[in-house]
Amino acid sequence: MTSSSGPAGGARWTPVTSVALGVAACVVLLLVGAFAGRPDAAVLGAGPLVAAAWHLLRRPAGPVRATLAPGEDDDPAAGRLTGTLVVAVPPGAVAASVDVLRHDRPVTDVLVAVRGTRRLPVETRTVRTGPQEVATAHVQGVGPGAASVADPTRPVTRRTVVLPPAGALPDVPLPPRLRGLTGAHPSPRPGEGGDLRDVHPWAPGDRLRRIDWRVTARRAPDLRELWVRREHALAEAVVVLVVDSRDDVGPDPVTWRGSQPPRPQDATSLDRARQAASAVARAFLDRGDRVGLDDLGVRRRPLPPGGGRRQLDRIRHALALTHPEGEPATRLRPPRVPSGALVVLFSTFLDDEAAVVAEQWRRAGHRVVAVDVLPHVRTAHLGAREHLALRIVQVARADRLAAMADHDVELVTWREAPAVALQTLARRAQRRPGAGVPA
């Protein structure tokens, strides 16, 4: 989280334009009353003139300071952004004019009473994730009787990082091969902790506590041969989440050209990718598996696979900081992933890059799940030309998704019951213990 303190506003306090005009009008009335022999007119101008002069003589002489600090109950992960605007005025000031903006759009403009220092809560909500602007405030001090105002402070702003929510998923698919000697999934090899594998004659190395006395009594009543129960060993899955940060498009196709950004109230494809990747990471980490993270749009060191609650925090923070970074170079080969790992690719598939990489992983023997994170497209406001351009893009995209399916890349659409789709993929692989995808 970052916040900024506005430098002190100028110590100069100037009369309000309306007060200056009122003083000039009162002076005119006094002169008219004096020269025309009209004491009533002079009295009408004398009262307001004395009051204005009294307030102007008592105007403060000091700077106005403003700071936008973190809120007391800040919870950016839930999309609720809070802050505290601290306004400090010099002695004699009675109020402050506060103008709050967000994304250069006015939110509120209020006049608040201030005596010395006052803390004002600021709260906004957002459907977006990643670096976010909480608010920007312009503060201007107000003197006694609202007769004078201070030079406005420089804008004070605060930014924070909104972590993507890690939703719960009932089940997720497994990679074709499991690794390690610990975990939550039964593997094909013999060991301990899993389901029953078979009953086998005792051999050197078998533990005595594994002897099945009922089978031994039935098959060898004279106890010349002992029979032991053998189980499947438990193992863990290795999963690599790959986010395609090259595209960050909203529901409005007009914004896809990049000439104008998506509206702040619209969740973009990258927001959906962050949310989907966080949910998938939580599902695997809760089962004791190892999860890593890579970015298809930026060539940097990936987050290696790891386990535990801290790994989920690392993944969510890395996802929140993922964003498009210029024009990415064309990849000659897909990012490297551990042998036998499950690859989950989150992309809009608006071009061939992500689809080609997914097919290369599949040919290398990995199980690849492609998650489509393109938002629902709004077309009601589009003209005939925009409709035609969108139709061409949709046809090319549909062909791209069909080609991936022909290469055994499993597809999941995140905007249409993703939990059910992932659960269906998981059940397809539950044909034998330790199997990921059917051979």
Describe this protein's structure.
The structure is a single chain. By secondary structure, this protein is α+β, with helices and mostly antiparallel strands. It has helices at 17-36, 39-57, 213-219, 269-286, 309-320, 352-363, 384-406, 418-428, and strands spanning 2-3, 5-6, 13-15, 65-70, 80-88, 95-102, 105-113, 117-125, 130-142, 148-150, 156-162, 185-201, 227-235, 238-243, 290-295, 303-306, 342-347, 367-372, 410-413. Helix 4 (269-286) packs antiparallel against helix 5. The protein is elongated and about 135 Å long.
Summarize the structure.
This protein is of the alpha+beta class. 28% of the residues lie in helices and 29% in strands.
Keywords:
439 residues; 29% strand; alpha+beta; six-stranded mixed beta sheet; disordered C terminus; elongated; five-stranded antiparallel beta sheet; 28% helix
Spell out the blueprint of helices and strands.
Blueprint (H helix, E strand, L loop, with lengths): L1 E2 L1 E2 L6 E3 L1 H20 L2 H19 L7 E6 L9 E9 L6 E8 L2 E9 L3 E9 L4 E13 L5 E3 L5 E7 L22 E17 L11 H7 L7 E9 L2 E6 L25 H18 L3 E6 L7 E4 L2 H12 L21 E6 L4 H12 L3 E6 L11 H23 L3 E4 L4 H11 L11
Parallel strand pairs: 14-15, 14-17, 17-18, 18-19
Antiparallel strand pairs: 1-11, 2-4, 3-10, 4-5, 5-8, 6-7, 6-9, 9-11, 12-13, 15-16
